[in-house]
Write a structure and sequence with these properties.
single chain; 474 residues; alpha+beta; Acetylcholine Binding Protein, Chain: A; six-stranded mixed β-sheet; four-stranded antiparallel β-sheet; 11 helices; 20% strand; binds 2-acetamido-2-deoxy-beta-D-glucopyranose; ligand-gated ion channel; ion transport
Length: 474
């Protein structure tokens, strides 16, 4: 029983061994026909068998790619389209022929005639539309050289936060879709530097994208069912920002600078508000036209959109402020006095922030003081002095005339008092309107400062990001 079993086992393993081994070829003559016949007899009939001597041997497949074209990056659907030359090489164990006997060291055979591995790119999003390459090279050492173009539409997580200075890191994962690592294992054939150099050499259509670096990671993916051998190529791409700088950032900066300098126009004139209004209109139209250039993803908002929003917000704020100031200039004398908190906040704190000394206030205090001291009862001495001079001019006139004059002077005094009260009232109105105007000036200055700070910060940020992204590459 055991004997029978063991002979059976030996027989099975022997047939398996024989079935998988391709013997050395014997060509009858050094012609293509002879070689083809030999191949037809010993190799082509076994195109379903993994070309190894025993099942425990994995087929070692070396992978190398050359990036030939970067066709497009679609931020919305997060897709990268590239064209690669993909070279796979593996050995058919046992296959060999003599170069002299068969007349050549390599021959091209149809892909369907031999076993080919199912190496796929894991990130594939669309079927391969690249031209078909029907042949592979077969060498007399048993090496199979499979070179074909692949148009890869791969998913890639695109991060556009720093648009247009963004750098993308997209991976292409090569591995067998079905076979475990014990059956097919993949290796990188050439180093990342060589891949990068070759790709740079042949890269033609890259549009706005620049190939920055390629790195390779060779790993084994372990799942419940088994482990898979895979190679990850990380393709680092950098956007060329010049187009966007010229078309988006510079015009925007120009418009903002224009708006900044419009603060030099006198705020009370209507010119300033209409000027700003025109600017806002222009900016809106500009954004509308340039909207196509901006990338869209649901995930993150690019920094540049925030920049545009803040720019627009500043423009609108400055227009509102101009309207406010114009209103103050024209009709603030009818306003109720400035609320205490507003006056303290704006004239005492913000005025210091924007470096306007609160000197007008002391002036007002003087006016106020003059009014309080100018009590009519106290100043009755002045008419008395004039009364004496009056009496001196007319010696005939005695008591009755003097009473009359006194009466006249009292009337005059009352009139003067009325005039004075009127003046005080006028000054009071002056005071509140002046205070409102001060507030307007302070807010004007504050917004001007904010503008300068924003423009400086955004310029510095843009330049920093630009320099950083350039520096990162080299
Ligand atoms: C080729 O010839 C050698 C000896 O000359 C022989 O051992 C071998 O089996 C032959 N191969 C085939 C495929 O016939
Ligand atoms: C290849 O071999 C098969 C069977 O071994 C045979 O039927 C076929 O005619 C051969 N092809 C050529 C072109 O000789
Ligand atoms: C494949 O590679 C492994 C390790 O690199 C080696 O041990 C094995 O012999 C190779 N197999 C073949 C068929 O070349
Ligand atoms: C690209 O991404 C991979 C994985 O996310 C990471 O390991 C690698 O360092 C990244 N490369 C660069 C240059 O950022
Ligand atoms: C590419 O990336 C590798 C690893 O991050 C780094 O060592 C190498 O210097 C980079 N090459 C270039 C040209 O930036
Ligand atoms: C009243 O105001 C005038 C000028 O504003 C000033 O010269 C004068 O000293 C003031 N009078 C008093 C009593 O403060
Ligand atoms: C009238 O006013 C002056 C200051 O303006 C003051 O010095 C004087 O004492 C006042 N007259 C009387 C009678 O008090
Ligand atoms: C002018 O305004 C100041 C500050 O609010 C106030 O103290 C002063 O009494 C005002 N002057 C008048 C004449 O109302
Ligand atoms: C009051 O306003 C008028 C102009 O409206 C100005 O000429 C005058 O100097 C102001 N008075 C004070 C005390 O500021």
């Amino acid at each position: 029983m055991t004997e029978e079993r063991s002979t059976e086992l030996i027989f099975i393993s022997f047939t398996l061994l024989l079935g998988n081994v391709v013997a050395a070829l014997n060509c009858t003559s050094p012609t293509p026909e002879a070689l083809f016949d030999a191949l037809n007899d010993s190799l082509f009939t076994k195109n379903q068998i993994r070309p190894v001597k025993t099942f425990s041997h994995p087929v070692n497949i070396s992978v190398s790619i050359t990036l030939v074209g970067i066709l497009g990056v679609d931020e919305k659907s997060q897709i990268l389209t590239t064209v690669l030359w993909q070279v796979l090489q593996w050995n058919i164990e046992g296959l060999s022929w003599d170069k002299e006997e068969c007349g050549t060291s390599r021959v091209s055979v149809l892909r369907g005639n031999i076993w080919v591995p199912d190496i796929e790119i894991a990130e594939f999003m669309e079927e391969d539309k690249s031209p078909q390459a029907p042949y592979v090279y077969l060498y007399n050492t048993g090496l199979v050289y499979d070179d074909k173009p692949v148009r890869v539409v791969s998913s890639c997580r695109l991060v556009i936060y720093t648009f247009p200075f963004d750098i993308q890191n997209c991976s292409l994962t090569f591995g067998s879709y079905l076979h475990f690592a014990s059956d097919i294992s993949v290796f990188p054939d050439i180093t990342a530097e060589e891949t990068l150099q070759q790709s740079r050499h042949v890269l033609q259509t890259n549009g706005e994208w620049e190939l920055t670096n390629i790195t390779i990671a060779h790993s084994t993916l372990v799942l419940d069912v088994g482990s898979y051998s895979e190679i990850k190529y990380f393709i680092i791409l950098r956007r060329r920002p010049l187009l966007y700088v010229v078309n988006l950032l510079l015009p925007s900066c120009f418009l903002i600078t224009l708006d900044l300098f419009s603060f030099l126009l006198p705020p009370q004139s209507v010119d300033r508000s209409s000027f700003k209004m025109t600017l806002i209109l222009g900016y809106t139209v500009f954004l509308l036209i340039m909207n196509d250039l901006l990338p869209v993803t649901g995930e993150t908002t690019p920094l540049i959109n925030i920049f545009f929003s803040i720019s627009l917000a500043l423009m609108v704020a400055s227009l509102l402020e101009t309207v406010f100031i114009t209103n103050i200039q024209i009709s603030s004398s009818q306003y109720s006095p400035v609320p205490r908190w507003l006056s303290v906040l704006v004239l005492q704190y913000l005025a210091v922030v924007v470096c306007i000394p609160p000197k007008k206030k002391t002036n007002r205090v003087t006016v106020f003081f003059n009014r309080s001291t100018g009590d009519p009862t106290l100043n009755s001495s002045v008419p008395v002095g004039e009364l004496q001079s009056l009496s001196n001019t007319g010696p005939n006139i005695k008591y009755t005339d003097r009473d009359l004059a006194l009466e006249e002077l009292k009337k005059l005094s009352r009139d003067l008092l009325a005039i004075r009260l009127q003046m005080d009232k006028h000054f009071l109105g002056n005071n509140t309107s002046e205070e409102w105007q001060m507030i307007g000036v302070v807010i004007d200055r504050l917004l001007f400062g904010l503008y300068i700070v924003f423009i400086t910060v955004s310029f510095v940020t843009i330049i920093c990001i630009w320099v950083y992204s350039n520096f990162n590459v080299t």
